Amino acid sequence: MIELPLFLVPGAPLALLILFALPQARATARALVPVAPLPALLAALAPVAPPPLALDWLLLGTRLALTETGATFLAFSALLWALAGWGAERLLVRDPARDRFSVCLLLAMTGNLGLLVAQDLGSFYAFFAMMSLASWGLVLHGGGAAQVFAGRIYIAFAILGEVALFAGLAMGAFATGTYMLADLAQPGVPPLALALVAVGFLIKLGAVPLHLWLPLAHSAAPAPASAVLSGAMLKAGLFGLMTVLPLGAVVAPEAGALLAAMAVAGLLIAPLLGLVQGDPKAVLAYSSIGQMSLMALGLGVGLAAPEAWPAIAVALVLLAAHHAFAKAALFLGVPVVWATGIGWPRALVLGAMALPAAALIGLPGTSGGLAKDAIKTAVAVGPGAWAFWLAPALFAASLGTACLMLRAFALLAAAPIRAEVPRGVALPFAVAVGLGVAGLALIPVPTHAAKAAVPSDLLPLAMAAALAALTLAAVRLARVRLVPPAPGGLLAAFEQVPVPAPVLALPAPERRGRALAPRRRRRPDGLAQSGGLAILGMAAALALAAVMLPEPAGSANPTSGAPAPAAAPAQSPAAGD
Amino acid sequence: MTPFPFPDLTPQLIYHLAGAALVGIALYRGATSSDLLTRILALNVLSVGIAAVFVAAANRGAGAVPDPVPHAFVLTGIVVLVAVTAALLALAERIDLTGAKSDD
Amino acid sequence: MIVFDLMLAAAILVAGWSALSAPDRTGAIAGFLVFGLLVALSWVRLDAPDVALAEAAIGSGLTGALMLRAAGRMAPPAADRVPRAQRAAAALLACGLAGGLAVAVMDLPGATIVYDPLVRADLGQSGVSNPVTAVLLNFRAWDTLLEMAVLLAALVLVAALGPRGTPRPARLGPLYTPFLRIMAPLSVLVAGHLLWLGATAPGGAFQAGAVLCGGLLALYFGGALRPAAVPAGPLWALCAAGVAVFAAAALAAEVLTGTLLAYPDGADKIWILAIEGGLTVSIGATLLLLFTGLRQGGARA
Amino acid sequence: MTDTSLLVLLPFLAALAATIHARGAAGWGLAGTVASAGLAAHLALSVHASGPASIAIGGWAAPLGITLRADGLAALMIAMTALVGLGVCVQALAAWGLRPTAVEDPRRARMRMGFWPLWLSTLAALNGLYLSGDLFNLYVTFEILGLAAVGLTALSGTRRALRAAFDYLVAGLAGSLLLLLGVALAYAAAGRVDLGVLPLLADSAAGRIAIALIVSGVGLKAALFPLHFWMPAAHSSAAPAASAILSALVVKGALYLALRLLLEGGLVADALRWGLICLGAGGMAWGSVCALRADRLKLLVAYSTVAQIGLIMLAISVAGDPLTGTAWQAAALLMLSHALAKAAMFLAVGRIAEELGHDRISGLNRSDLRPGAAEFAFAIAAISLIGLPPTAGFVGKWVLIDGLIGQGAWPVVALVLTGTVLSVAYLSRVVSRCLRGGPHIAPGARRPPWRAGDVAAIGLAFTALFMGLLSAAPLALLNGPLLS
């Protein structure tokens, strides 16, 4: 087997990006987008992990390597990106701006695949930022009011996350003295640094209350983009947290409890808000929040009970991979539903979608059932309190997911046909369903023995169905009509009418233009004089400061020979605070 | 020998202080005048004030040979300043001409 | 004599203030001319005759002429409408700064003498005996080279931006012509003398260039010289000649001796005089063109 | 080392040639720029290989004579100037042509004949400034730089440009004179004016006032808040190539001098450092607010320069002891990234304005014409300016924050991050419009063909982008020994 150089993992999509710059080569480049993640997939599936790579001349010294966890994440991410590229090619076949979409997709792909193999802070942050910012283009792609609004919220959260991440990584790098990502998990890193990094990742992961961007972005983006947003990019947050948190090494019950509280909030809020949505993609997005919260719960347990972490880690990877495949299949199914007429074709499509949905609910025999099992067994190792709380949490997750799935299917079943959606989207969807069913067998996930199915595993679905039937009956009897709010949950209350104004809205220019006119007229003279005054004031103030304020003791240099001692007070501004 | 009440007052110090005062005057007018020509004049006065500091510092008191290097600095400064003044005046005239005609 | 110095300093301050606060332009410029002459006088008092010469000829004379030309072309000034608060703030700050400077110069640490012994030690090797010329053209010739670049840059700016259509001065009539016949050759003679003198006594390229410019200005006002009628190329070449010679000499010296601007041993005086000759011509021409303006390359309609 | 003298004299002689032989100005200009870039590359390589070098002009050693000194910092600045210069030259050639044509627009001819001598003078002055080791020599160099820069501002000849040029020249002259006053006081206090005088100035009141005056002069030249009053008008009313030079290169001269002052031990007074930190932070805030409120694209970019200068000044004043820390390198890297990105940005804005016929931000996505290439260049430059990876701005900010954390200066870290967020805010006003199109744009909006000006902007923007990837090269230069 040929050893695949690791730089090809982010390098292949990047190279394709360069091809897009040449107008003549665009058709070829477009066709190649689905195979751009191929090197990543090969690297992840190789029986022997590719050798680490050190590029000292790049950034702050780039180190690429593939860890065991990274290989799993890389495998399902690469598969998902390939599917998304293929799906986008077929969905946007008539879109005049599809090249822009492809470029953004490739950039985000480069970032996502690259961060999974990056081992040093500089390149990790670079890839992470590349992924986050390029996704802005994916969210904005449709160009409508909803997209503009979603884009605005998305970029605000993304930048917030970037800044927190950057600050945290910089502090961590200083504390550890190295630029290696894995060193952040060593003891001795200031908690503030870890907290900042965690905030950056939790925003990406969509943990409540940092989730506000997520449903908006998922419902605004085209379906293939939603598939990778939910399937691959949210997982990047999880991957980051698993890499940098000192899991399994440090007991941090407070942090664990905080994380668990956020997770439980997510588990509760996701179905509540998701059920009232009118857009199936928004409903699916809320279900992602619920699932990611479950993973955050696993992290919380790992922080509080280090002895349980090895088992939890295995379960989390399994859960992530399963969710990635299932959710991607569901998102890719949405445009297929739009393209098929109401009747048996649609029933067929919905039937196919039911397979990943069942996996997501965690029915026995599906990948979801396996993952749920795994996490249950893993947590049993930890302290009793955690295990005690986990069973209801898992049940709530399953119940919530089941309700959300039923809601999504109801909406999909009634969705009108959209003539503009090409029929070609069905093929990627079929492959995605196949992956959703059998995906875990294809990629190197940690194995877990399946437990025999018991009837109680079906309880969440049954309860959800009963609840749905009851609600339907109540609605019919009371003769009320459910008016779904705009996607965005709470945020929708703040901005009912999205305006097509610029991002980070600023006052309209016309009025200010008029207001400027009189100011402009008296500008030159006043400017010159206040400028003169500023010069005078600056010179006088600095001179005064230089003369009046005494030098700190020991810094004055009476012998005045060498410059070295005179430069010593340089450190004092820092010491001053 | 001198009946003046400040015995250590030397010509050097007097012109030093005059230079300081000229700097103050020039900067004050630069900050309070809107007339282009006055501001150009103020900059010229400022440079004379600086030259006074240089030349006074070069002087080593009566009888001693003064330091030639600051003299060279002031000579250079005078020529540089006349060049910049010419450029400033050309600009000011042009602004005045175009200003009278139109405001584009 | 201290009393004379005090009175002179006070007169300088009064002249300076009146130049900056006169309500009309002519008064302001007249104040500035007087100010320049008084300052030149004070330089003489401080044993700086080279500087006094240059200040009188260039700093006061030529600048005053430039100002007068500009004042004639510009609209009269509008009355200042500066808020009283700004005035007060400016006055306060200016007093503070001037006071700070005064305090600083009053308790200067005892004279630190750095340059004097160095100049005295090296003067013998510099090729000239006037220390100021030695500094300008040998010890710190790089400054002088860049200073010529400033002159040329200003000329480029004036040529590109000067007011369109330089008004031609009226001929000053027949009475003026005999004066010109004496003036023009005399200025060339005096400039040559100053140039030669600069090696040993106060004088040198800048003073000589200023005198040359004075003679050229006389010709210009007499109507005998019309730079606007001359093609721009040769005029530019004349202005650039000095600095081109200087830069070429700098590089040639580097080729000959291995060090930039290090003249070959024993030939310092010849090199310096050659450079100064070029500089004098260029300074005279450049100062004149700064005054009269010049058309650039024929691009102007 | 013949490099050092030729780096100044060669562009200068080319400027003379371009002035005298005005018809071939562009040819002379191109030759001078390219030759100077070659010399700059050679200088950088030789400094990297064999360490810093200095020559005493005329064989007269400092303090009496003037030395030209080329260490890693100076070589990096000179290389930066050459790199940006090449990009700007491509734009100038594209806009105004190489040689006169038979029937020619007089404005085009005037710009071509005016631009090249002024640019070459700017180049010579900047190189001289980076190499100079003498305060009075720096004053003279600043005057050449100031005059050439004013010429570039006024080149377009509009009333706004002339007015801005006048204010610029007055402010520049005032700054030079403050510097000269500082030099005079330094002479009065210590008897010499080479850069070696700086550490001696802390001992007397006159010396400290001298430093304060030099810093105010430099601040005025660098458009440090609140002395930036002349700058937005000057930078926004010049022609695109001129704006790029002014904003990317000319202010760097003054900032470099401020950094030199620090490295030579001149910023000794602690109060002065705190003052500069406050001014830098103020500049970041005020520049950002004005950029957020600007209604014209060029003005937005000019105000962003105010904010970025604030950041660089902040980096310079907190940089710490150059002998023990490496935080001062952040300032150099930030200057490098700002030069590349800002030049690209001004060129891109120039192209956008040329295609749309205006540069109102509100109208960017209201026309059915999309200057895609220029918008793309703007977006890339914005990424570098914000400091996102992998750009040079990112590496600069990284080194800065690393150094700040090393000193425990947390409030300053917060300031830098706030400044970053603000820069995202004002730049996204433009980038978002470029990215998403607008409600009034038909799907088949007309795209103008690429021009050479676009190539210059995109080239510079990508250089800024990849300079971060290759930041080992500038850091290797900066890690070499310094001359002081």
TrEMBL record, chain A:
It is a multi-pass membrane protein. InterPro entries: CPA3_Na-H_Antiporter_D, ND/Mrp_TM. Keywords: Cell membrane, Membrane, Transmembrane, Transmembrane helix. Its main location: membrane. Residues 553-577 are annotated as: Disordered. GO terms for cellular component: plasma membrane. Residues 118-378 form the NADH:quinone oxidoreductase/Mrp antiporter transmembrane domain. Coiled coil: none annotated. Pfam families: Proton_antipo_M (PF00361). The chain crosses the membrane at residues 6-22, 29-49, 69-88, 100-118, 124-141, 153-180, 192-214, 226-249, 255-276, 283-305, 311-340, 347-366, 386-413, 425-446, 458-478, 527-549. It is found in: Cell membrane; Membrane. Belongs to the CPA3 antiporters (TC 2.A.63) subunit D family. NDH-1 shuttles electrons from NADH, via FMN and iron-sulfur (Fe-S) centers, to quinones in the respiratory chain. The immediate electron acceptor for the enzyme in this species is believed to be ubiquinone. Couples the redox reaction to proton translocation (for every two electrons transferred, four hydrogen ions are translocated across the cytoplasmic membrane), and thus conserves the redox energy in a proton gradient. This is NADH:quinone oxidoreductase/Mrp antiporter transmembrane domain-containing protein. It comes from Meridianimarinicoccus roseus.
From TrEMBL, chain B:
The keyword Transmembrane applies. The keyword Transferase does not apply. It is found in: Membrane. It is a multi-pass membrane protein. Keywords: Membrane, Transmembrane, Transmembrane helix. The chain crosses the membrane at residues 12-28, 40-59, 71-92. GO terms for cellular component: membrane. Pfam families: Oxidored_q2. Its main location: membrane. This is Na+/H+ antiporter subunit C. It comes from Meridianimarinicoccus roseus. The lineage of its organism: Bacteria, Pseudomonadati, Pseudomonadota, Alphaproteobacteria, Rhodobacterales.
TrEMBL record, chain C:
It comes from the Bacteria. Keywords: Cell membrane, Membrane, Transmembrane, Transmembrane helix. One of its GO terms (cellular component) is plasma membrane. InterPro entries: CPA3_antiporter_subunitB (IPR050622), MnhB (IPR007182), MrpA_C/MbhD (IPR025383). Its main location: membrane. Residues 11-74 form the MrpA C-terminal/MbhD domain. Residues 180-271 form the Na+/H+ antiporter MnhB subunit-related protein domain. This is Sodium:proton antiporter. Belongs to the CPA3 antiporters (TC 2.A.63) subunit B family. The chain crosses the membrane at residues 6-22, 29-46, 52-68, 88-106, 145-163, 175-199, 205-223, 235-264, 270-291. It holds the Pfam family MbhD. It is found in: Cell membrane. It is a multi-pass membrane protein.
From TrEMBL, chain D:
The keyword Transmembrane applies. It is found in: Cell membrane; Membrane. It is a multi-pass membrane protein. Residues 132-423 form the NADH:quinone oxidoreductase/Mrp antiporter transmembrane domain. GO terms for molecular function: NADH dehydrogenase (ubiquinone) activity. GO terms for cellular component: plasma membrane. Pfam families: Proton_antipo_M (PF00361). Keywords: Cell membrane, Membrane, Transmembrane, Transmembrane helix. One of its GO terms (biological process) is ATP synthesis coupled electron transport. It comes from the Bacteria. The chain crosses the membrane at residues 73-94, 138-156, 168-189, 209-231, 238-259, 271-292, 299-320, 326-349, 369-388, 408-427, 455-478. Its main location: membrane. The keyword DNA-binding does not apply. Coiled coil: none annotated. NDH-1 shuttles electrons from NADH, via FMN and iron-sulfur (Fe-S) centers, to quinones in the respiratory chain. The immediate electron acceptor for the enzyme in this species is believed to be ubiquinone. Couples the redox reaction to proton translocation (for every two electrons transferred, four hydrogen ions are translocated across the cytoplasmic membrane), and thus conserves the redox energy in a proton gradient. Belongs to the CPA3 antiporters (TC 2.A.63) subunit D family. PANTHER family: NA(+)_H(+) ANTIPORTER SUBUNIT D1 (PTHR42703:SF1), NADH DEHYDROGENASE (PTHR42703). This is NADH:quinone oxidoreductase/Mrp antiporter transmembrane domain-containing protein. It comes from Meridianimarinicoccus roseus.
